[in-house]
Every structure is written in C-alpha cells, then in structure tokens.
Amino acid sequence: MGTPIPYHFEPMTLTSRDIHDALRTVRDPDIGKDLVTLNMVKDVRIEAAQVTIGIELTTPACPMKETIRKDIEQAIRAKAAEVGASSPSIAIEFTARVRVAASKSASNPLPNVKHVIAVGAGKGGVGKSTVAVNLAVGLARFGARVGLLDGDIYGPSAPTMLGLAELQGGIRGEMLLPFEVHGIRAITIGKLVDPEKALIWRGPMAHGAFKQLALQTEWGDLDYLIVDLPPGTGDVPLTLAQLIPLTGAVVVCTPQRVAEDDARRAVRMFQQLGVAVLGVVENMSYFIGDDGKSYDIFGRGGAERMAATMGLPFLGAVPIHMELRRNSDEGTPLKNWAGNPTLASDLDGLCQRVASQISIATIAGGLLQPTLSMTD
Ligand code: ADP
Q: Would you list the domain boundaries of the chain?
C-alpha cells in the first residue's frame, strides 16, 4: 500500500461576478432600484476570504446606509451558500456623491450648484427660516457642500440666526462673496441694506434684489443651495422659479388647522409654478417640558395628515425646543447638535429625509448612465 495522497480541500471563493450578481438583488430602499443599476458599486475586491465593496451613496446624509450595509451582507452570504463557497468576511466602504439630474440644462445660471431647494410657508412665524437654517447647517454636518440664500427680502433672519452682526461682507469684482459660517456659505439682503429700515420692495425691485442675491453671489461648487423664501405666495417664489431650475420645495407648517389652509396654498403655489414639492415639515409639533412630558399644544400630527391627504411625503416633526429658539437668537446653530440629543436627532432626521427626497427626485428625473472607460 502506498502512502495516501494527502487530500487538500480548497473551499470555493466567490468570484467578482458572484458579488455583482448578489449586489443586483440589493435595492436602495428609498430609490427602489438595485445598487448595480444605480451605478453605486464603485469597487469590488476579493482577497482570499475577504471581500471589500465600495458603495457610493447618492448623498452623505443617506438615512439608509445601515440598511444597505445589512442587505449587502445578507445577499453575499446567500450567494456564497448558493454556489457552495465559504462565507467571506465583508467590509463595506461608503463614499457619497450628490448626483445631478440628467435633465439639468446646460443653460442653468448656477451650473456649479447641483440642487436648489426652496423652503416656503403659507404664512410668517411658523419656523420657515429656522428650518431653512438648520437644514443647511445639518446637511453640511453630514459632509455636503451647502449654501443658504436668505431670500426673505422683506424680513431677513440670517443676520441674527447665523450671527453675522460683526462680520463684513466681501465683494470680488461684481460678485458678492458669501459669508462662510457654521460650515455653510450664506448670503442675505440683511447685510446689504440698513437693518433698521423696513424692507419695502415694489414688485420689480423685489425681483431685482432677489435676482442679484441669487446670481451675483460667488457660491462656488455646492451640492445643495437652500433658499429661504418670504412667507406666503408673493413675487419672490415666482422670480425664483423663473430664474433657476429648482429640484424642489419644502413646505413648513405648524400643526393647527388654521395653519394647514395656508400651507395648502403654498403647496398649490409651488405646483402651479411647476416646482416639485419634496414634502412637508411639521414645526412646533409639540413641546417637551422640563418634567419630560410631551405637551400637544397645537394638535400634533396636523401637518402630517395634510401631507398625506395631498399625497406628499412627510419630512418630519420638529418639536418646540427652547434651545432651538435660544440658539437661533444667539446666532449659534451648531449648538443645536451639541446640547440636546433629541433635538440633534430630530434635525438630523429632517435633513436625511430631505436629502433622500432630493435623491429620489433626481433619479426619477433621469438616471445618468455610467460612463464606460475605454481601454485597449
Ligand atoms: P418664519 O421664518 O416662519 O417667520 P422663524 O423661523 O423666524 O419663522 O421662527 C419664528 C420664531 O420662532 C423664532 O424666534 C424662532 O427661533 C422660533 N422657533 C421656530 N421654530 C421653533 C421650534 N421648533 N422651537 C422653538 N422655537 C422655534
């Protein structure tokens, strides 16, 4: 009897094709298409029992990152079981690139701004500027490049809410330089005219002032430009819609019935202007007292119901937080993420839902096909 030939069993490893097949079964839950079709798979490396996958999200504020991670792991394990390979250890590396709709026209007056988002409200005092400022600062905290255009030319809030009092605006040639504060770039009429003077604009002047702020600011490259509009349905939203292609509008509303009617009008206005409404935010949704109890002051859920009846996404509820008011008055928006974890997570949730609606609108507006690199 000769010595037996040692039998060495090499378990099968997954191939790059196996990984791609697995990734084709994983959908971005918001967008509803698979990762390969969405061109989100940027890298697949297989080294022995280790698989490394690079996924490019459509926004750094993607709320679905952990779901996508789990779904990928599950799909790869299922594939390994199917082909009889040993289950690899999986590393997923996330990056993000905000995409531009394929339909974005070349004649866009702000070619370096990927998305212009209007923030509107049916009437004043509902927290439209608060939402606009915190949306801008919050998206920047996630890593996006963000600008804030304080387009409320009748009652600019940015000088106070961003703490611009001591800062001097700059000019380069004919262009205004935005204030670089709290991680964003911001411009406001409030720093260009005497703040003590009531800002009364006739129609054409309002148009001119807004146009100048929007187009004569050196924004540089931006993922998102958030535009805080004056309340109601006046000239400025019309000017904006005519001037720049908008990705969409966010409507801010408080929960009471009387506020709802105004918000509906704001929604209808955007729709008549051909601007997609990305969704509704319920501000001052409820109040949490020092005793930790939640007080339903204005009828929590009113704006959410309104959004549902109008077939619009609900973007989230922001309760009445004393810190939010204080930090707005003191011009220190970043403190909203530093003190109260509930406030921080409410604001992050809002930013993530807005960012994901922007991604959904972008992909729905036409998927940019992956570019083929030609090598021989
Ligand atoms: P609008 O832009 O709709 O006129 P603002 O954003 O200026 O409203 O808000 C009006 C006032 O209410 C401001 O003093 C702001 O700090 C405060 N405020 C807005 N939202 C909240 C909130 N969720 N909690 C506490 N204060 C708020």
A: 16-96, 113-364
Cα–Cα distance between 316 and 38 in angstroms, integer? Answer: 26
Report whether 288 contacts 321 (CB < 8 A).
Answer: yes
Q: Among residues of the chain, what percentage have pLDDT more than 70?
A: 91
Kindly report the average pLDDT of the chain as a whole number: 89
Residues 25/75, Cβ–Cβ less than 8 Å: yes
Q: How confident is the model at residue 301 (pLDDT cuts 50, 70, 90)?
A: confident
On whether the 16-96 domain is CATH 2.60.120.10, my answer is no
Q: Which atom of ligand 1 is nearest to the CA of 124?
A: 4
Gap between the Cα atoms of 30 and 195, Å rounded: 43
Angle (deg, nearest 10), helices 341-364 and 128-141: 80
* Shared fold status for 16-96 and 113-364: no
The residue whose CA is least distant from atom 13 of ligand 1 is 325
**CATH class of the domain whose range is 113-364:** alpha beta
pLDDT at 201 over 90: no
Q: Is the CB of 326 under 6 A from ligand 1?
A: no
List the one residue out of 64, 113, 19, 99 whose CA is nearest residue 370: 99
Task: Name the packing angle between helices 257-272 and 302-309 (round to 10°).
Answer: 40
DSSP 3: P
Distance 284 CA to ligand 1 centre (A): 8
Phi, psi of 185 (to 5 degrees): -110, 130
Cα gap 119→131, rounded to integer Å: 8
Instruction: Tell me how far the alpha carbon of residue 124 lies from the centroid of ligand 1, in angstroms.
Output: 9
Rounded CA separation 92/265 (Å) = 45
- The pLDDT of residue 371 is 36
H or E element that contains 239: helix 235-243
Could you read off the pLDDT of 90-134 as tens digits, one per residue?
999 999 999 997 766 667 899 999 999 999 999 899 999 999 999
